[in-house]
Amino acid sequence: DIYCRVIELVATIGDPETRRWHLTQAIFEYTLQHLDFDHRGLAITLARLMPAHEDGIHSLFESTMRGNDPWPFAFENHVYLGSTTLAGMAAMLNRLQTWDNLDEDQRLQFEADDYERSACAYPVTRGERLAGVLIISSTQPDFFANPVACQAVVEYAQLLGLVFQENDFIPFAKLNLRPMPSLKWQRLE
C-alpha cells in the first residue's frame, strides 16, 4: 500500500533531498502501476514553482516526470508551464483541472503536450499555500471522465505534499503566472 510506503520513507530518511527523491519515485511508480496497469500510455509530472520575482511567480517548471510508452521513462528536457497550461490553471484556481481532446472548446483553453489526449492537474498544497502541481496525462481520450481517476490524482497530489519542506510552500497570492513559449518549442530548444 502506497500510504504505508510513504510513511515508512518519511520516518526513516532524514536528509530532505534524499527523502524528496525517494518519496517522489515511490508515488510515481505506484501511480503508473495502478492508473496504467494495461500500459496504454500515461505520464506523471510534478511541476514546481519557479523563484519569485518582485511582482510574483511567473511560471512553474517540470521538476520530475515519469511515463509509460509512448512517453519516455523520464524527460530530461524540462519545460516552463505558465498561465496557458492545465497546470497553470490548476495553480491559479487552486482546484482540480481536467482536459480532454474530445471537447473542442477545451482544446483552445490549454496547450496539450505530445501524445496527450486527456489530462488532469491538481495543486500540491499545505493549508493556503502552494508548492507545485501534479499533472497526469493519458494517451486515451476521456480517461479522466471517470471520477475515480480524478480522485486518485487528488490523493497522489496530497501525498506529494509530504515531499516538500515548509519553506517550499508559498501563498497563492504570490502567483502571477504568465504565458510561456509553446511546449513543443521549449522541448526542441
Descriptive terms for the model:
7 strands, globular, 189 residues, alpha+beta
**Quick one: how many beta strands?**
7
The structure class reads alpha+beta
| Low-confidence blocks of residues | none
Can you tell me the overall shape?
globular
Oligomer designation? single chain
Helical run tally = 6
- Rounded to the nearest angstrom, the distance between the terminal CA atoms is 40 Å
Fraction of residues in H or I helices: 25-40%
The ordered string of helix (H) and strand (E) elements is HHEEEHEHEEHEH
What does the main sheet amount to? 7 strands, antiparallel
Q: Roughly what fraction of the amino acids lie in strands?
A: 15-25%
How large, in whole angstroms, is the Cα Rg? Answer: 16 Å
What does this structure look like?
The chain is α+β, with helices and mostly antiparallel strands. The chain is 33% helix and 23% strand. β5 (118-126) and β6 form a beta hairpin. The model has no long low-confidence stretch (mean pLDDT 91).
